[in-house]
Structure formats: C-alpha cells, structure tokens
Amino acid sequence: MALLTPDDLRDINKQLQEADSIVRRVTGLDIKGICKTLYGTSPNSEKIGIVPVTAGNGIIKNFSASLHAITQYFGFDSFVTDMSDVSGYYEAVRSGADIILMADDHTFLAHNLKNGKIANNQPSTGIIYAEIASRNQKTDSKDVLVVGLGKVGFPGAVHLVHKGFRVYGYDTDKTLLKRAVSSLGIIPFDIESPKRFSTIFEATPCANTIPETLLSENCVLSTPGIPCAISEELRLKYNVQLVMEPLGIGTASMLYSVL
Ligand code: NAD
Ligand code: 2YJ
Ligand code: MG
C-alpha cells in the first residue's frame, strides 16, 4: 500500500486549482460539476469532522491539514479535531460533525452519520477519474485504455463498462487481468501493441507505465496513480491533457457519494 508523503501534498490548494482547470478544459465541467452529475447530490451545510489517526505508520504531516483545505475548497464547513483516534472521533461527534473523514494505512473513509452512508477512497477515486476520462470532449471514440486494475483501477473499469465504453485493460499481474477480463468482459491489452488511444485511465503506483506508442496528440490521461504514468517529455511532446492530483478529487468523490 503506497502511502502519501507530505511532499505529495505540498501546496494542495494550488494543485487542486490546477487540476480543476484541466478538468474543465477536458470535460466542460469543474470537479464539483462532475461530482453533482455523478452522484446527483449537492452539499447542504454538512459539517465535516477530520480525525487524525496515529495507527500503523502514524500521522502524515499535512494530511489532515490538506483534507481541511480540500473540504473548504469544495465549500464544506470543516474542522480538524485536536485529539486523534478514538478521542478525536468522540470530539468530532460531540462538536456536531455530520460527516467523519479519517484514514489509517489501509482505509480512508467518509462516513455520513446522518444518513448512514459510507465511502472508501479507493473505489471513489477510481470512479471519479474514470468519469473524467469518459467525458473527454475532444473525441467520439468509445475506446478507453485502463492501466492498473487494482483497488482503484478495477472500480474505474467497472464504471467505464457500465457507461458503455469499449474498455481495453492491462495489468502486470496476470491474475488480476484475467479476473477483470472474465468478470467485466473487457479486452485484454498487450502493452506492446501499437494502438494509440485518445483516452487513458491509469491507476498504478509506478512511473512510466504508458509507453509512447499508446499516446495520441492531445490525448486525455486521467490518473490518480502516483508517481506520474508518463514523463514530462512525453507530456509535452503529445500535449497530453493530464488530470493528476494526489488527494482532493478522490476526496470530493467520497463526500458527494455520501450526501
Ligand atoms: P493496487 O496495488 O491495489 O493496484 C495497483 C495495480 O497496478 C496492481 O494491480 C499492479 O499489479 C498494477 N501495476 C503495477 N505496475 C504496473 C504497470 N507497470 N503496468 C500495469 N499495471 C501495473 O493500488 P491502488 O490502491 O489501486 O492504488 C493505485 C495508485 O493510486 C497508487 O499509486 C495509490 O497511491 C494511488 N491513489 C491515488 C489517489 C488520489 O487521490 N490521487 C487515491 C487513492 C490511490
Ligand atoms: O491521519 C493521518 O495523518 C494518517 N493516518 C493518514 C493515513 C493516510 N492513508 C493513506 O494514505 C493510505 N494510502 C490509505 C488511503 C488510501 C488512499 N490513497
Ligand atoms: Mg485525487
């Protein structure tokens, strides 16, 4: 399980603003607009309690502060508890939180205490990055390549199949690839074949997972995967429309899904 680092979260407001403007250029909607159409929900003065968690590898510097900045960016009323863990959870509920946000090394959840809905960061992230990819305004093609079919990529692939896309999938783990092919009917993709795509969704923890032979001019690469799936050189060479941000887009998806 790849953990976020304080460095990934540096200047989260700026990263979110930049991601928002690319999402707008690619889809015609901003991140809020994507969330509203995806889940059919809108915020209604919900108060969000962010609880730092010390379990496992412990507090990630900037994590709770970044969630605070992200929730404020999306217009939510939010606060970080002074206490951590169980005491922090108690503090959040006693201070009137409607929604709890908290993460250990394995699970990052949003739990709406008012309606009982709960969201997990990994599928929520896969679904929203897949949704952004599916809204590529610059193409009529129904072909989408999904690279990485794990906890984030698989739910994203499911979403694209449900939306009627012709989904090509690739994962270095052949068992995972077989599972996705048999359960979703996606097309197993040979990463060495020279087919160029206008839309790619990538969710792996590795760098340089997309070879040049798959890129087309102005293609959309929607990727929550850290580090980046392509080099800066390839991004510039193909004018790749890169949607990549470390925490905010996935968090927005979680929050709107529990409203
Ligand atoms: P995971 O381990 O469940 O899945 C990753 C998959 O990628 C695995 O199935 C693995 O076999 C595959 N893979 C590795 N190298 C590959 C390669 N070169 N080509 C094709 N497939 C390859 O991990 P996950 O939970 O799905 O997370 C994926 C990435 O998304 C991680 O980097 C994680 O940190 C990141 N993430 C980002 C956000 C965000 O908001 N930006 C949120 C959640 C997760
Ligand atoms: O409260 C804290 O500061 C820490 N306990 C946060 C831990 C954050 N967890 C992760 O980054 C894990 N990868 C699990 C979340 C999956 C989303 N990337
Ligand atoms: Mg994100």
Automatic annotation (TrEMBL):
<dbReference type="InterPro" id="IPR023914">
    <property type="entry name" value="Pyrrolys_PylD"/>
</dbReference>
<dbReference type="Pfam" id="PF21455">
    <property type="entry name" value="PylD_N"/>
</dbReference>
<feature type="domain" description="Pyrrolysine biosynthesis protein PylD N-terminal">
    <location>
        <begin position="9"/>
        <end position="118"/>
    </location>
</feature>
<dbReference type="InterPro" id="IPR048757">
    <property type="entry name" value="PylD_N"/>
</dbReference>
<dbReference type="InterPro" id="IPR036291">
    <property type="entry name" value="NAD(P)-bd_dom_sf"/>
</dbReference>
<protein>
    <submittedName>
        <fullName>Proline reductase for pyrrolysine biosynthesis</fullName>
    </submittedName>
</protein>
